[in-house]
Specification:
Elements lengths: L9 H12 L6 E5 L6 H13 L14 H7 L6 E4 L8 H11 L9 E6 L6 H12 L5 E7 L7 H4 L3 E4 L5 H11 L4 H10 L4 H10 L4 H11 L5 H13 L4 H20 L14 H8 L4 H19 L4 H27 L1
Parallel strand pairs: 1-4, 1-5, 2-3, 3-4
Helix pairs in contact: 1-2, 2-3, 4-5, 7-8, 8-9, 10-12, 11-15, 12-13, 12-14, 14-15
């Protein structure tokens, strides 16, 4: 893959291409940004451009020479990739890397050492790597990739040039999904909206969250306020018995509430403002049933329940409490409205 095929990171890529073209590549870089935004892909593409035998222009790779083909097939002797062995990157892995760095690049170009999930270096490995960063070998460049730079030693951070990768736009992620999967445009747009700017998160959601079942969960939200407590208990029991993660349900409901708020602010706006853009009729109808304050309360309750479930509380009890609170809030508002009319 060439640099122009990496979407959404034009600024980061421009910095790296300029440094390569002018012979100013730093010995150590920290690629910081959320998972799934192109950090590893950029590091591998840069490693390819560093060693390309017939670059079409400065800072680019031809994709056709033997060196480029070896990088693409993960078979280049001077492109070294280190990933966690289990939960951590361990000192033996760093020591093995240091052994290889004692020699000049084997294929005569420049060596690229990519440490993916560098924040998972254990203490011994981090201290060992620090020695390499303090005295980097000639013709060797290290790329530390992490979504959590604060977990790295300050002494490691201070010896790296930072390159920040931003979350991908919804349109970029949708394009990635359309090219990498069998999703329809509606599905790609929807999963991109849920992804938080991460292409890998969007793909993961597509694997575990059924696009059509979402409609049933949104219908459950709309019907909730007419249900009895007993019916609510049954709904919560059914949800917790299903394979889907309740966190996905809560995130869907938060995005639904967000869509209702967006509609209330500007009912005549463009369709692409909505996450659930295939449900505009339902959004229009439900937005008129709730006040701004109610919707903001719903969003707060949903966020709090997500936090509680992440703390391993009883999921069914948490969902029951959430739904009863939402129903209670709606009923109280209706009582006030009736009183005002009278």
């Amino acid at each position: 893959m060439a640099f122009h095929q990496i979407w959404g990171q034009d600024h980061a890529i421009s910095i790296l291409r300029q440094a390569l073209a002018h012979g100013r590549l730093a010995h150590a870089y920290l690629f910081a940004g959320a998972d799934g935004v192109g950090k590893r892909l950029t590091a591998l593409t840069l490693a390819k451009a560093m060693n390309c035998l017939a670059p079409p222009e400065a800072g680019e790779a031809c994709e056709q020479c033997s060196s480029c083909l070896k990088v693409n097939s993960s078979n280049h002797a001077d492109v070294l990739l280190i990933e966690p062995d289990g939960d951590f990157i361990k000192i033996d892995q760093v020591r093995e890397l240091q052994k290889q760095l004692r020699f000049r690049p084997l294929e005569g170009g420049r060596r690229a050492c990519i440490l993916d999930a560098a924040d998972r270096l254990n203490e011994a490995a981090a201290n060992a790597l620090l020695k390499t960063l303090e005295e980097p070998p000639a013709e060797t460049h290290l790329f530390l990739i992490t979504p959590r730079p604060h977990n790295l030693l300050p002494t490691i951070l201070s010896r790296c040039q930072w390159i920040k990768f931003k979350p991908l736009s919804r349109s970029h992620i949708a394009r990635i999904l359309l090219s990498a999967s069998s999703f329809s445009e509606e599905q790609a747009f929807f999963y991109a909206s849920l992804s938080g700017g991460s292409a890998s998160q969007a793909l993961s959601l597509g694997d575990r969250l059924d696009f059509q079942k979402r409609l049933g969960w949104l219908q459950t939200f709309g019907d909730l306020f007419q249900k009895s407590p007993g019916e609510i208990f049954e709904i919560c029991e059914q949800i917790t018995k299903e394979e889907e993660d309740p966190q996905d349900l809560l995130e869907l409901w938060k995005l639904w509430v967000r869509d209702l708020l967006v509609y209330k602010v500007d009912p005549e706006g463009k369709e692409d403002r909505f996450v659930n853009h295939d449900c505009l009729q339902e959004i229009s109808a439900q937005a008129q049933l709730f006040s701004f304050d109610q919707l903001q309360d719903f969003f707060r309750h949903l966020s709090e329940t997500q936090k509680f479930i992440s703390m391993k509380v009883n999921r069914q009890v948490a969902l029951e409490t959430l739904m009863l609170e939402m129903k209670k809030g709606r009923a109280a508002t209706q009582a006030v409205e009736i009183g005002m009319i009278r």
